[in-house]
Write a structure and sequence with these properties.
The protein is α/β, with parallel strands linked by helices. It is 47% helix and 19% strand. Helix 3 links the parallel strand 1 and strand 2. The relative contact order is 0.14.
């Protein structure tokens, strides 16, 4: 009888220990950090080369430092902001350790979903515009958000237009009206053009989604000498449509980033999206492993932009590129 009671006591003690261990684990977000393992949710707005490269850079930076200790839940919203919200709400419900938001609508959805889980953005041009707040980028946002930017000053694109199309009188600007950062870039470029080429007139053309890109692009090039497209995700995803409109008309297209230019533009000021994604991943390591305060973490920026051109597009429109431009490798 005593032996039977002793066995029952041992079993009860084992069950109690198992229960305490389970309680000590907490949710994925809390338990992950405590145990040295982490779950990171990645919400990418849409699939195109630039954003894909940024996501890969982010993942590589984390796995280089944390190895198998980090697990990714990578999801793509296929260009739909409402789907971004659904994705990040799932990350919040699962109490993930960190959310990476690739592109402005993904960042905005994440910010709306949580004030507690650290959020890092990438491929975001202007964090002030995206977050609708003013702050010193070098001093942090003051909230649970930081990240890396793909921003390039509009003056560099204005200089590009002046160098490539010095006699331009009409320059069109094309972007998606749903992307706040595209408007910021458009305004910046237009202001720079007024100083750089005061005799040229800039006209803005916006499309609402992929369904009206062709018609709006056709209107944009009707009377223009050059077309500028900022780092707009919808434009990048549908650059072949824009190319099919602009190339036959022999329009010099100044694109906001390398991959867009490679697939349908003439020239760009290039940054490396893999590098800004990697920088974002390095920030994630600091937050997750090193306990860095994300509220004071400076926004990271690309360094050393390079003037690049698309040789195929230049040949197709009969355009001679001056010295100092690097041909984009495909």
């Amino acid at each position: 009888m005593k032996t039977k009671k002793k066995i029952i006591a041992i079993i009860m003690m084992a069950l109690l220990c198992m229960s305490l261990a389970a309680c000590g684990g907490g949710g994925q977000g809390e338990g992950g950090s405590a145990s040295g393992s982490y779950t990171v949710g990645i919400c990418q707005l849409v699939q195109h080369d630039a954003l894909d490269a940024a996501t890969q850079g982010f993942k590589d930076a984390l796995t280089e430092e944390l190895g198998d200790a980090v697990t990714f839940d990578e999801q793509n919203a296929q260009g739909d902001s409402a789907v971004c919200a659904t994705i990040v709400n799932g990350f919040v419900s699962n109490n993930y350790d960190l959310i990476m938001a690739n592109a402005t609508p993904a960042l905005q959805a994440a910010v709306s979903a949580t004030t507690d889980i650290p959020i890092l953005g990438t491929s975001v041009t202007d964090y002030g515009a995206a977050l609708e707040m003013e702050f010193d980028p070098q001093g942090g946002t003051g909230i649970n958000v930081s990240g890396s930017s793909d921003g390039v000053p509009g003056q560099l694109y204005a200089d590009l237009v002046k160098e490539l199309v010095p006699d331009a009188k009409n320059v069109s600007i094309l972007y998606c009206s749903a992307e706040a950062n595209s408007k910021v870039q458009s305004d910046d470029f237009e202001a720079a053009m007024k100083e750089t080429m005061p005799d040229a007139t800039c006209t803005v053309f916006t499309f609402s989604d992929s369904n009206d890109i062709q018609s709006v692009a056709t209107s944009a090039i009707a009377n223009c000498d050059a077309l500028y497209i900022p780092t707009d995700n919808q434009a990048a995803s549908n650059i072949s449509i824009i190319k099919n409109v602009c190339e036959p008309a022999k329009i010099p297209v100044i694109a906001g980033e390398e991959n867009m230019c490679a697939n349908g533009g003439l020239a760009t000021i290039s940054i490396n999206y893999y590098d800004i994604g990697h920088a974002c991943g390095e920030q994630a390591v600091q937050v997750l492993r090193d306990g860095a305060d994300i509220t004071t973490m400076p926004i990271a920026y690309a360094s050393d932009p390079v003037k690049e051109y698309n040789a195929e597009y230049a040949e197709a429109i009969g355009f001679t590129i001056p010295e100092g431009y690097k041909a984009i490798e495909k």
